[in-house]
Amino acid sequence: MRNVGTVVRGIRTPIIKEGDDLANIVVDSLMKAQESEGFKFRDRDIVAITEAVVGISEGNYVSVDNIAEDMVNKFPSKEIGLVFPILSRNRFSMILKGIARGMDKITIQLSFPSDEVGNGILDEEKLDSSPFTLDSVISEDEYKEYFGDFIHPFTGINMVDFYRNLVESENCQVEFIFANDPRKILDYSKDVLSCDIHTRYKTKKMLEENTSGKIYGLYEVMNKSINGSGYNPDYGLLGSNKATEERLKLFPKTGDALVNKIQDILKEKTGKTIEVMVYGDGAFKDPVGHIWELADPVVSPAHTKGLIGTPNELKLKYISDNEFADLKGDELKEAIKGEIRKKEADLTGNMLSQGTTPRRITDLVGSLCDLTSGSGDKGTPVVFIQGYFDNLADE
């Protein structure tokens, strides 16, 4: 009988550099961890690699000048509106620097009271006592009068001031408005770059239906190479991160080939079919800062086919409290095992019990990996998971 359920291990690797053979580095690191820790590989184990090292190894970088050139190609008028950029020094400031370098004037529309992923732009208590509602359009002067003293509780800065200084440092004019309807930007510019992440297609469609100007999404900037630069055909600048003061690392574009190669090598070395995925930000929300972690366009841009789908699980607490409320101890445990076996035999998934929240396996596993590896100095860009697909009925 197994007395341990899911086990998650952060796997240390050498420092990954551009051009490294990442597949073999991952496998070699796993084999060394297996030797030192003594675990045994099993079918349906999961190996996950953070997107950061995938992008680094494939050399998928762009420069600020690359972004500026692509912006001029797309917006030759050099006067545009930006709608719904997130408030992030790591995620968006370098993108904004490239946009400003290519443009003469930018009007930036920010949503309020926070951006798409939960970063605040004003004090919500002050908003409640102000003359504005969530349907208002707030000018920059009005923002300064009512909310201008706001600073982010974690970073200690005001992102309006930060973004203004950044744009002006590139000799570009900038104006801010604050509104939650993306169409409001069209009162200031007919040419618009929509910068939101998870609502990107809806926002772009709304704008296209209300203007004859040029409308692009951030996922369409740097979706092709500029002068030999990196690019991402699916996500463009979405999912990018600051690398240096003049360079960004893009979301990886070779993940599918990588995960299948790692799976094949592990099969040859261990005899086991091990699932492999690339993961970025997890899909969870900080209850204190109210920040939704997922600033990447997806949790997992690449994964092997065994990770497709959603879990078909029973909510043990629900059936324990309701269907078997009169049972305890081993008798209760055996009854629940019987329900699990019936669920597994029902290929339609009709045994899914009340109380479970249907989410994709890759979103759940990716969030687990992001929490395990963190974003700091743990040095574990690979995460190894065993027993994720086990249940109480497994002996």
Layout of SSEs?
Elements: E1 7-11, H1 22-37, E2 46-50, H2 51-57, E3 61-63, H3 64-74, E4 79-83, H4 93-102, E5 105-110, H5 124-128, E6 138-139, H6 140-147, H7 159-168, E7 173-178, E8 192-194, H8 200-208, E9 215-217, E10 241-244, E11 247-249, H9 255-270, E12 275-279, E13 302-303, H10 316-321, H11 329-345, H12 361-373, E14 382-386
Parallel strand pairs: 2-12, 4-5, 4-8, 5-7, 8-9
Antiparallel strand pairs: 1-14, 2-14, 3-11, 6-7, 10-11, 12-13
Helix pairs in contact: 1-9, 3-4, 4-7
Total domain modules: 2
Rg, Cα atoms, Å: 24 Å
Separation of termini? 5 Å
Proportion of residues in extended strands: 5-15%
Unreliable residue stretches: 313-320, 347-355
Strand order of the largest sheet: 6-7-5-4-8-9
Q: Say how many strands there are.
A: 14
- Global shape: globular
What's the helix count? 12
Helix content: 25-40%
Summarize the main sheet.
6 strands, mixed
* Average pLDDT reading: 88
Class by SSE composition:
alpha/beta
Provide the succession of SSEs: EHEHEHEHEHEHHEEHEEEHEEHHHE
Relevant terms:
about 400 residues, alpha/beta, 60s Ribosomal Protein L30, Chain: A, 2 domains, six-stranded mixed beta sheet, five-stranded mixed beta sheet, 12 helices, 14 strands
What would you say this structure looks like, in words?
α4 packs parallel to α7 (159-168). The protein has helices at 22-37, 51-57, 64-74, 93-102, 124-128, 140-147, 159-168, 200-208, 255-270, 316-321, 329-345, 361-373; strands at 7-11, 46-50, 61-63, 79-83, 105-110, 138-139, 173-178, 192-194, 215-217, 241-244, 247-249, 275-279, 302-303, 382-386. It has 395 residues and is α/β, with parallel strands linked by helices. It has 2 domains: 7-59 and 252-311 and 359-386, 60s Ribosomal Protein L30, Chain: A (2-Layer Sandwich), CATH 3.30.1330.100; 61-249, no CATH class.
